[in-house]
Structure of Peptidase S8/S53 domain-containing protein:
Amino acid sequence: MESDWYRLLAELMKFQQRVTIVLEVGVLRNKFREADTWAAGFLTLIQWLQGKTCVRVMILTGRPINADDDSIVKRMTVVPVPTKRLSPIATLHLMRSTVGLKSSQAPITEYRGPCLISSILEEQGPPSASEPVTEKSSSTKKVESSKYQYRKDPSREELSDTENIPMCRLTDSLHQSLGADQASASDASKRATGQWFKMLETTTHEFMYKQDLQSEIAVKIAVLDTGFAYTNPEDKRALRPYYQRIKKFANFIEGGSDAEAKMDPAGHGTAVAVQILKISLKAVLYICRVVSPNGGPDKSAIEKAIKKAAAKPDKESPDGGGWGVDIINMSFGWPYHDEGVRKAIDFARQNGVHLFAATSNDGLLGPPNDILYPARSESVIAVDAADGHGEHARSAPSSASQHSQGSRFSAPGLGITSPNRKDIWEGSSFACPIVAGIAALILEFARQPPLNKSPSVQAFLQEMPAMLALLRRASSEKGPDGLKFLTPWRLIGKPGEERLVTALFIVDELRKEYGLEVGREVLQCFKLSEK
């Protein structure tokens, strides 16, 4: 019985002077409705304690629950910033705002919106736009689009010594242990990812670009995300080299303007786009804003963006038709299938567009569908996060997942940086554009001599089995689970290998799937070179 559970918990707690409970219910996902009863449940627990223990409970929800404000239950609404969950330190600082209550019946706080900003961590209110939250001397670690930052406030002396000391000690301890460990882990991840990019530069990039061969047609990639930061002077200075390769900004959120796609307060979309541009040095981007103001992906906007990006240009159409992109990057996901998005994905595949999506960052704690949609779609290539050495991220879904078998890869998704911020990003969101960028490198190489002389190669590279085969060829496996980590220099950029030999390897892979007629023109080039 539920009452027995609370009674047992009360028996365990009644010998403690003070108990703090922080409960994140976001992991319930589709079962979230069950959380509506939790406020009343903890009130039952408090009644069982009969004033013997000071209990403080915080329920982090990320969305509204049915809990009315009163003397015991308090709700807190915070300014939305795109993020998923609270760090331990930020949680404790938020709890400190309730420590001064003298009652044994502490508030149950509802945390609304997937965010935390310093206005709830310090009494003087939110920082102004010219007063950044992040300390300049340190970098901020970001998990997906998460950004939890706070400032110490020496003026907060309203608490009595007996109440302030225990929380201070716990907070300071976490600063010393978690802070040091996280900084060390972030630095190690950043170094490993930096080594991966250095390897890419000295092998694949050297191989691809040393002769300055121009592709006849640039590879076009649509990035569906939060936008691309290019409005303030600091962003413009930092991102100018990348901005030159952006062909279009479009906002697909209902009622929004395209100019909003040049704004990215969260920084998520900018960091994603930069990874693609760092991988493929000739690709051009189409920035699509598809994330609603509340921080969640708008499925209707995603559907429209996919269709616009995948449609062929039509000069006679009033809107000019589509953009005719080659690749679509989707660094987001949700638990369940969406019919509108599915139809848009099918349309894109019919037009030969390759789609990439991030899998998940919930590890084994995710919903029943551990790989999120659209990464779970059979028409989409799924991407997990790993470190720069190929070790699967702890936040990645199970390697034994039945979803996306055969079309799932991993790439560096830890220790990711963007030139306009000091933040360190983590998650499959940032591994996904790296794999999309490698796919762009493959298409770009195919549009240069000698593969550009083969119409059959160009046609078959639009097929998903062809792209999967070449990505596997450009991957390495670490461990017995068969997870494929992208090392593109295994396909393009082998030391001492001639371009023609690499082209023949690609033709050979395509022939395994589509027959011996593929790439005859390339073989003719090889025969001529032997004479």
Remarks:
- The CA atoms of residues 393 and 502 lie 31 Å apart.
